[in-house]
Design goal:
Layout: H1 2-34, H2 37-53, E1 57-62, E2 72-76, H3 81-90, E3 94-99, H4 108-114, E4 118-120, H5 125-140, E5 144-147, H6 165-173, E6 177-183, H7 185-188, E7 203-209, H8 223-245
Helix pairs in contact: 1-2, 1-4, 2-3, 5-6
Length: 246
């Protein structure tokens, strides 16, 4: 079974770029022909799900009832690209922030723009605040975004200390933050690895959506209090989940 899993992993890794090459132009075409949010959502969700399923990865979601009806910012721990696949596939309608460098990749960049992905220019403060201002309207329209407060892929016994950016982003729009803890994604594709989920025929990622935390009333002076509240909600679940995996 391990050998078959390895063969499937090689094939899935080779096929993955074509999910972007094929679905990307179709998503762009559908967006400009019909301009329907539900169609855009379907393409994003289908891409996330197919990336998981072709690698034998199952995603179990707990706490979907905690998802707000209106605009919010999902804050997720980021240990693997499979975090993104899981969120895209199993939280319908979510939109991501991505570092500006990714917007230079052909096809992928056009798809991200069509799907309303937020370009995050980490080294350009003016551009960041411009995006914050533009996102306020989108939050008011009920859009939901996902960002990693760890600032990049990280894996350890405990979560990495959170960065200020995502919290300032949510605070600027007074949008609630929704903590999401994802356990098992690292095992499917560790940072630096190439093959998707080798050696196991099946693997399960557990995604837990926690109750929203309001950002209204927080200021730059009290922002760290908000970060601590969210960190203290997420970290114990991450620690416990990894204990159960090991």
């Amino acid at each position: 079974m391990k050998f078959l899993a390895f063969i499937r992993s090689v094939l899935a890794t080779l096929v993955f770029p074509f999910t972007v090459i094929i679905l990307g132009p179709l998503a762009i075409l559908g967006h400009f022909l019909f301009n329907k949010r539900k169609l855009d959502d379907w393409f994003v969700s289908f891409w996330g799900r197919i990336c998981c399923r072709m690698c034998g990865v199952k995603v179990v979601v707990n706490g979907m009832e905690n998802r707000p009806a209106g605009g919010c910012l999902f804050l997720f721990n980021h240990s693997s690209f499979f975090d993104v696949f899981a969120l895209a596939g199993y939280i319908p309608g979510v939109r991501f922030g991505a570092k500006a460098e990714l917007f230079k990749i052909p096809i992928f960049s056009h798809t991200m723009r069509a799907m309303d992905t937020l370009p995050i220019a980490r080294n350009n403060r003016e551009e960041v605040y411009k995006i914050y201002e533009e996102a306020k309207v989108r939050f008011d329209n009920g859009e939901q975004f996902a960002l990693s407060p760890e600032g990049g892929r990280f894996y350890g016994k405990e979560l990495s200390p959170f960065k200020a950016g995502p919290f300032l982003f949510a605070m600027s729009a007074e949008a609630p933050v929704v903590p999401v803890v994802i356990v098992g994604a690292y095992e499917a594709l560790p940072k630096g690895a190439i093959l998707f989920n080798p050696w196991r025929w099946s693997h399960t990622i557990h995604m837990t959506i926690l109750t929203p935390v309001e950002t209204k009333g927080y200021t730059t002076e009290t922002r760290k209090d908000l970060q601590k509240i969210v960190y203290d909600k997420m970290n114990p679940i991450w620690v416990q989940g990894n204990r159960e995996l090991s």
